[in-house]
Amino acid sequence: SSLPAAPRRSPRALRRHGSLLAQYSSLLESYTEGEIRQLISALVERYSQAMNSGAHELPLFPRAGSRRKRARARHKPCALKELEVSVSELGLGYESDETVLFRYCSGTCEAAVRSYDLSLKSMRSRRKIKKEKIRARPCCRPLAYDDDVSFLDAYNRYYTVNELSAKECGCV
């Protein structure tokens, strides 16, 4: 209480700066043209030294860690994707060299979490629900399927497979 009060900095007003670009442009306006040229030449020199020393990455920017990359990859929204594969690669037991366009659902459903999912997760963590195979979060699944797929196998037999390829995806 006997110490003098430290000077306090006022909080930044986001409305005053508008955007990140506005913040950087106001920052750069405070430098002279000579200082900016000096900064750019130092960065270019640092980059060329790193490339000559065998480094393959820009030393100017921090490298995204694998944890951050995984976090970004986990939060891709549920979407329809496609892959061209042979009928044999589908794993349904048919031998055929014919190719089909296999559409599938991939992604996360974080935005679709409901009260049910939160309560179910809580009951599992409190061990009220034990040893049952249940998911406490929505899954990215097909909501509708493409038309049936027909093909000839390696023995010239004709087959039709239904509900093979997704037409529309959603969180279920």
TrEMBL record:
Compartment(s) of residence: Secreted
Highest taxon listed in the record's lineage: Eukaryota
PROSITE patterns membership: TGF_BETA_2 (PS51362)
InterPro entries: Cystine-knot_cytokine, GDNF_fam, TGF-b_C
Keyword vocabulary terms for this entry: Disulfide bond, Growth factor, Secreted, Signal
Every TGF-beta family profile domain range: 67-172
Main location: secreted
GO terms for biological process, alphabetical: glial cell-derived neurotrophic factor receptor signaling pathway; nervous system development
GO-annotated cellular components: extracellular region
Statement: the UniProt record of this protein carries the keyword Secreted: yes
One MF annotation (Gene Ontology) recorded for this entry: glial cell-derived neurotrophic factor receptor binding
Entry-linked CDD domains: TGF_beta_Neurturin (cd19383)
Assembly and oligomerization: Homodimer; disulfide-linked. Interacts with GFRA2 coreceptor and RET: forms a 2:2:2 ternary complex composed of NRTN ligand, GFRA2 and RET receptor. Also forms a 4:4:4 tetrameric complex composed of 4 copies of NRTN ligand, GFRA2 and RET receptor, which prevents endocytosis of RET.
Function: Growth factor that supports the survival of sympathetic neurons in culture. May regulate the development and maintenance of the CNS. Involved in the development of the neural crest. Might control the size of non-neuronal cell population such as haemopoietic cells. Acts by binding to its coreceptor, GFRA2, leading to autophosphorylation and activation of the RET receptor. Heparan sulfate-binding is required for signaling.
Family: Belongs to the TGF-beta family. GDNF subfamily.
PANTHER family: GDNF SUBFAMILY OF TGF-BETA FAMILY, NEURTURIN
Name recorded for this polypeptide: Neurturin
Biological source species: Pterocles burchelli
